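re the bet — no i am not wrong, look at it urself. input seq straight from the record:
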Amino acid sequence: MYFVSSQIIRSLTSYLASQGLNKEHLLNNITQGGQQLNNSRYKYPLADYEQLMAIGAKHLNRNTVGLEFGQALNAQNWGLLGHIALVSDSLLSALQHALKLHTLVRNIGTISLHHHPQHSSLEWHPKTPVTHFIADELFSSWLAFAQQCCEWQAPLMLSQIKLMRPQPPINEVKRYQSVFNCPIEFNSTTNSMIFDSQLLHCPLKGANNELETLLAAQAINYNHEAQYISQLKALITQHLPERLSVQQAAQALALSTRSLQRYLKQQHTSYSKIIDEICKQQALILLKQGLSSLNIATALGFSEQSAFQRAFKRWYCITPKKYLTEK
C-alpha cells in the first residue's frame, strides 16, 4: 500500500483551509474523516493525498496547488525527518538523511542524488502512477527548505528543473518559473532538480551534530519498524480478495510465524487487526468510487455482503448506504 504520513495530510488540509476551502468537507473526503491526523505514526493511503489535491485544484481553479503547498511547508511538517534536516550541518548531510529516511514521510517513489563534474541532480521517480502534485510539492519544498535554512546570504540558484508532467498552460508555466527561477523542461523522462554542486556544502543555520546523531539513530530504528508494517500491509492488500493467513504472510516476509506475531505484539497490534484496518480503509475508498456493497464485499474477501455491511457499521457506526447519503 502506498502511503503518505499523517503530518503531510494534516499540513495539506490546513493549507487548503487557509486558501478558503471548507476543512470539514476536506476531512470528509479522506480515510476515517481525519480522525488520525494527530497520530504521528499513522499512514494515509496515497488516494487521500491525491483526492485532497484534486479538490484543491478544482476549488482554486489552478493545477499548481502542489507547487504552492510545497512553498508553504516547513521542515517540521516532515515529522522526524524534518527535525533531523534542521539540525544537519550542511545541505548534503540533510539530503543524505532524506535518501535513507524519506519513507518516513511517504513510500511512493525513490529519491537519488547524482554527482557530475559541474553539477549535481536530485531525482524523484514514482513507483506507481501519480498526478504531478507530488513532484511539484517535493521540489518546491526542498528549495524552500534550502532558502530558509542555509547560512549563505547569496540567493540559491538552480540550474534547471525537469518534470515528467505534461506542458501546462502558459499562466501555470509562469508560476513554475517564479518559484524555481530557472529553465524548466516539461514532458521529461525524469523529475530532476539540477544545481551547482557547491550548494551541497552550504552550512545550515541550526546545525547541531550531537542532536543530529541522536535523532538519526532514533529515526533509523523507527523507519525499520514502519517499513516492516508497511511491507506487511502492502502484501495483504496486494493479495486481496484472498485473505493471506499469518503463516503465509510470515513466509513471504522470510520470518517464522512466531517471529512475526511477536513483532506485531511489540508494535501493539496483531495480524487480524492489520487486516481489519486495511479492509476499513479500502472499503471507504471503494465506496467513494461508486462500487456497490456486494462488489466491495467481494473485492475485500468477505464471505457475503451481509458480513461486509456488519463490519462497515462496526467501523463507521453507520451503514454504507447512509454513509453515502449523509456524507
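see?? The two ends are 25 Å apart (CA to CA). told u. also The first strand starts at residue 3 and ends at 5. so pay up
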